[in-house]
Amino acid sequence: MVGQKIDGIEVSDAVKKILKSAVEKLNSEGVTPCLATVLVGDDPASTTYVKNKHNACGKIGIKTKDHKLSSDTTQKELDRIIDSLNNDKEVHGILVQLPLPKQLNEFTTISRILPIKDVDGLTPQNVGLLSMGKSILKPCTPSGIMEMFYYYKINLEGKNVVMINRSNLIGKPLCHLLLQNNATVITCHSKTKNLTKYCKEADIIITAVGNRNKFKLSSEMIKPDAIIIDVAISRHDGKLVGDADYDDVIQKASWVTPVPGGVGPMTIAMLLKNTITATSLSKEIAG
After folding, report:
1. Do both 260 and 146 map to the same domain?
2. 3-class secondary structure, 122
3. Is there a catalytic annotation at residue 120?
4. Mean pLDDT along residues 67-86
5. Residues with Cβ < 8 Å from 52, sequence gap 6 or more?
6. Residue 239 lies in a domain
7. Is the peptide bond between 260 and the residue preceding it cis, with omega within 30 degrees of 0?
8. Is 53 tagged catalytic?
9. In angstroms, what CA-CA distances link 252 with 4, 6, 21, 201, 206?
10. How far is CA 215 from CA 33, 64, 195, 208, 268, in A?
11. Cα separation, 57 vs 266, whole angstroms
């Protein structure tokens, strides 16, 4: 029996509908949520990502401030911009688009953002709170994946999850969120031996490799009725694809996220949610 699609567009639309009402409530109290973005350089993909985030904000009433810096920006100059945004009471969320040019230090940059304005959930304080199950602002992609599980009523308790990613952006934070929902998590990566063996034993596979030339998840690697969450996106043979061969694995899996239209829309939806949450936090502190 063919599996079902986990529709990220449908879930994100449902989330945005709730968020739009939250913005209207804040507006009625004289507060306008504001997200400030910082883009260093002119990388086409990063430029597109920032543009999409601004468009999404505009549709639900979040104000945006766009800071575009040259590719030769120094760390000192970038620090100055972040400090000014930290001190700007009109700005509730700060997002520095990654990756940064080589002369800039990613950890130094992210660490400089006030945790209460860290809508990416990547500052050391927010990462630490996440590991303790106490975080309020969580990384967008992992929290978007969790939102899809909740929406489709996929119970994680006792499930064996194989995570094919160990990055600070996806694998590590998502591992914490899954554990907090009583899943059993095995983290796999480029040095893992017998990856197929782990995949065949998994109830849920979450994959975020992003290189079809090195890795492709096929139906032969999964067990019947497995759930496949495909976080990767890359261009292969002229098409946007994920790690999983969607048409193949959906013949054997119970649920599968498509690429595009799966995890991607949820990442932006969670950024909007974090911005509104950060606005509410600042309002409570100010009040």
Report:
1. yes
2. coil
3. yes
4. 98
5. 268
6. yes
7. yes
8. yes
9. 10, 15, 39, 14, 16
10. 41, 38, 11, 10, 26
11. 14
Q: 36 pLDDT exceeds 60?
A: yes
Residue 248 belongs to domain spanning: 140-264
The H or E element that residue 281 is part of is helix 263-286
Give me the catalytic one of 53, 117, 172, 273. Answer: 53
From 118, 120, 243, 245, the catalytic residue: 120
Return all residues near 155 (Cβ < 8 A) that are at least 6 apart.
none
Task: State pLDDT tens for residues 80-97.
Answer: 999 999 999 999 999 999
Residue 173's nearest CA partner among 200, 211, 144, 148 is 144
DSSP 101: P
**CATH code, domain carrying 191:** 3.40.50.720
Q: Name the catalytic one among 97, 172, 203, 243.
A: 97
Measure the CA–CA gap between 249 and 242, rounded to whole angstroms: 12
- Residue 11 · residue 260 · CB < 8 Å: no
Active-site annotation holds for 43? no
Q: Does residue 63 contact residue 57 with C-beta atoms inside 8 Å?
A: yes
Tokens of 141: 């992609």
What is the DSSP-derived secondary structure letter of residue 100?
P
47 plus 150 within the same structural domain:
no
Q: How many domains does the chain have?
A: 2
Strand order in the sheet with 63-69: 63-69, 34-40, 93-96
The whole-angstrom distance between residue 51's C-alpha and the CA centroid of its chain comes to 16
Q: What is the pLDDT of residues 100-117, one digit of tens each?
A: 999 999 999 999 999 999
- The rounded distance, in Å, linking the Cα atoms of 125 and 110 is 11
Q: Structure pTM?
A: 0.95
Give yes or no: residues 259 and 144 share one domain.
Answer: yes
d(CA 177, CA 287): 31
